[in-house]
Write a structure and sequence with these properties.
The complex is a heterodimer of chains A (257) and B (211). With 257 residues, chain A is mainly alpha-helical. Chain A has helices at 9-14, 16-28, 34-60, 64-84, 91-117, 124-155, 157-165, 170-195, 203-210, 215-245. With 211 residues, chain B is α/β, with parallel strands linked by helices. The chains are: A mainly alpha (257), B alpha/beta (211). The interface between A and B is medium-sized, with 16 and 24 residues.
Chain lengths: 257, 211
């Protein structure tokens, strides 16, 4: 098997012709998001060039410090992304979410790289791309879980008030909300597992096949990463909500928000 | 002097509510009145400890309210809030859910029907709650709490969605039931005639802004 065909710059630039097609159609349809598409394309290009150069440098000069720094940056960015969209969380809740993302992302990643692949966890070639997939999906899951949880609490205020007045503990009252939010956060991952291989060939597998990996090896990686993603979503959402919901009330079972 | 059920002293909540000193006796029908914003609903929440005062003292049966565990206290001092919430399903299923949540045995149907009659609800127990009117929902909500016969029953605007006849009918029955079960009702109401007809004690909250 051969590795992927090396693209020359001119060949690569050809793909932007397709983007011009999209732009023309959007202009014709008077779509309002033409400018956004333009900005998005530029941002994507610039961001990926930067990260490509950075990875290239790291791979040529591998050092544990680089891997650790890259991981830390990913985590900080994902935690920031989740928390910046949820202004309604108290400080202790936010700390719980940050901890949950860190702990579950790293735990699943280390297990994957060290135990399953059998590589050094500081090997950037494995750790960095896998971390991106694991932490990125955990971030999306936690965002969705928190959204479901906080919104259902907001819309069910009447029910919660009634249960408080019936003399029920907040633990009893809020647990079902935690369970439902966990379920809704896991559902997209489970659904994508259902369609995998039939409706589309997943990105990681496609990438490996393009670069010359045997399809039988590629599917093993794909299955492994899907399970790892599922586990990290489940763990991070569960821990976020589990540590988080306890910050909503005090020892006297009073809602403190 | 008879010991008060509730006694407050220089009670403040979050800096924006400052109460005059209030005493509420046991086994009397007490009405809380006062213009809106005078903190009537907040006072009821302080009484069942779903919130805590920022300063001042609140005694329940002569002991500071902080000395009581919140959960048993809320079952003893039962607050029926203004906004009714019902579960899906029938009237009976609502009673079943509430009793299951409280981990209590469901009383027999004759008792539940009696409670419904007290709240002026002429419905069979298998009536779905979805097609009850606003006033009927409010009365069923009261009935759910009333059925536990708590020693202290805090009612926040119990008749706000009812017409005169229903309001007076229910109040009459409710007070009768409270006497029978030796319960103390504490009622927030704006309805002048209702208050004057049934009051044995009135506490009018003064609107004061804390400094």
């Amino acid at each position: 098997m051969n590795g992927a065909v090396q693209l020359t710059l001119w060949q690569f630039l050809l793909i932007y012709l397709l983007l011009i097609v999209v732009l023309i159609i959007m202009k014709r349809a008077k779509a309002s998001k033409t400018k956004l598409l333009f900005i998005a394309s530029i941002r994507m290009t610039v961001q990926l060039i930067l990260v490509g150069l950075l990875l290239q440098y790291i791979f040529e000069h591998p050092h544990p410090v680089f891997t650790v720094l890259f991981l830390a940056a990913m985590l900080v960015f994902s935690i920031h992304r989740v928390l910046s969209t949820r202004k309604d969380l108290n400080r202790r809740f936010k700390a719980g979410v940050a901890l949950a993302l860190g702990v579950s992302g790293l735990a699943v990643l280390i297990f994957f790289v060290c135990a399953v692949v059998g590589e050094d966890v500081f090997n950037p070639q494995y750790t960095i791309p896998l971390a991106g997939m694991i932490i990125g999906n955990a971030m999306t899951g936690v965002s969705l879980g928190l959204k479901t949880f906080m919104e259902s609490i907001e819309t069910q205020r009447g029910k919660i008030e009634m249960m408080v007045n019936l003399g029920l503990s907040f633990k009893t009252i809020l647990r079902p909300f935690v369970n439902r939010a966990l379920e809704s956060a896991l559902l997209p991952t489970i659904n994508s597992m259902l369609g995998m291989g039939i409706i589309f060939l997943p990105g990681m597998m496609t990438g490996q096949i393009l670069s010359g990996t045997l399809p039988t090896t590629a599917i093993m990686y794909q299955i492994a990463i899907m399970i790892a993603i599922c586990a990290s979503v489940c763990l991070s959402v569960f821990l976020s909500l589990w540590w988080g919901y306890r910050t909503l009330y005090n020892g006297d079972d009073q809602y403190i928000g | 002097m008879q010991e008060m059920l509730f006694q407050t002293k220089a009670l403040c909540y979050q800096g924006f509510l400052e109460y005059q000193d209030i005493g509420i006796p046991e086994n009397k029908v007490t009405f809380l009145t006062g213009e809106s914003g005078s903190g009537k609903s907040t006072l009821l929440k302080l009484f069942n400890r779903s919130i805590s005062p920022s300063s001042g003292s609140l005694l329940y049966r002569g002991r500071p309210i902080e000395a009581y565990d919140s959960i048993p206290l809320r079952r003893e001092v039962s607050l029926v809030s203004q906004s009714a919430y019902l579960f899906d399903g029938t009237i009976l299923e609502n009673f079943e859910t509430v009793y299951r949540l409280r981990e209590c045995f469901l009383p027999d149907e004759a008792y539940l029907e009696k409670i419904l009659r007290i709240c002026m609800l002429q419905f069979p127990l298998d009536q779905p709650t979805a097609n009850l009117s606003g006033g009927e929902k409010q009365r069923l909500y009261i009935a759910l709490f009333l059925s536990f016969a708590p020693p202290v029953l805090l009612l926040d605007e119990p008749t706000s969605a009812l017409d005169q006849a229903n309001a007076h009918g229910m109040m009459e029955n409710l007070i009768g039931f409270c006497r029978e079960k030796k319960m103390t009702p504490i009622i927030v109401s704006h309805d002048r005639t209702l208050v004057e007809t049934y009051q044995e004690c009135i506490v009018e909250l003064q609107r004061r802004n804390a400094v």
